[in-house]
Amino acid sequence: MIAFLRGILIARDAQAAVIDVNGVGYRVGMSTQSLGSLGAIGNEVSIQTFLQVKDDGIALFGFTTEDERFLFEKLITVSGVGPKVALSALSTFSPASLLEIITAEDVARVSSIAGIGKKTAQRIILELRGVLKSDGLASAATADGGGTGTAEAVEALLGMGFTSAEISLALKSYEGDKSDVSALVRFGLKRLGTA
To answer: pLDDT digits over 61-106, tens only?
Structure first.
């Protein structure tokens, strides 16, 4: 799985960005909020990704925050919600607002998202409200007051196949230097029972 990309932003339209990673251009579907935060063409960017493999092709989706990727992954588990609808939801609301709306069971606001009708909105709330209340947003870095080191450790652990929720829980009680990525990863692996 492709967990993240770091490269040069070479093009962007309303739905996607093209990122040059060592001479290979990756077209990455993104929310308008993430696209807007990438900056100017020619900037070096780093994004987290989700790779979707289906019978009719492969698609890559990108996120500038762990919270956004976490919500995207939860949304696409709901029947009738595909990647385009999930990106539409993340283009309409910030991850924190979307979490709040779903846990508050606000059907009207969920159904205001393009591509989501009342029945789908009710299904999203029914299937995700409990999960999102227990998991909260995925960003271990935000929850733990960490900085770049925590974010890099989270990326590394995601690349090893752990879920956002597992990582958040594993790193929650870390009390050492949050800029020491290797120490964070070792601590996380120990808590996750693999080291």
So the answer is: 999 988 899 899 999 999 889 999 999 999 999 888 888 888 888 9
Note the pTM of the prediction, 2 decimals.
0.67
Topology given in CATH for the domain delimited by 140-191: Helicase, Ruva Protein; domain 3 (1.10.8)
**CATH code assigned to 66-135:** 1.10.150.20
For residue 87, give the amino acid letter.
L
CATH class of 4-63: mainly beta
